[in-house]
């Protein structure tokens, strides 16, 4: 049976000549990166909206990218640097893309980031379906 290396008691010295034990376990908060936590926040918001609107959310794809592309789409009068939606075309499903770095730099706390992610997803889904964001998520903008 395979065991994690930090539970194994056979390891070499800590002077750079052999295997080292991890500095911290995988269950500790430090193991999580900011990117991983951002992805988890996006997934939680998508799950929350999927429970409320399964028929609207199921056909959509959600993605996270680090930064937006340098060239905005020609049909966007004022491009959003925090997220973007792409309508379905030629067999490709509609997509909502959130940009991690701009959202993280605009917010100061984890709660603000969660609220910003919630608002961006609701706004983009509403834009795709031609609805108001308040119809998709009643807490939008609060």
UniProtKB/TrEMBL annotation:
InterPro entries: Zincin_1_sf (IPR038555). It comes from the Bacteria. This is Peptidase.
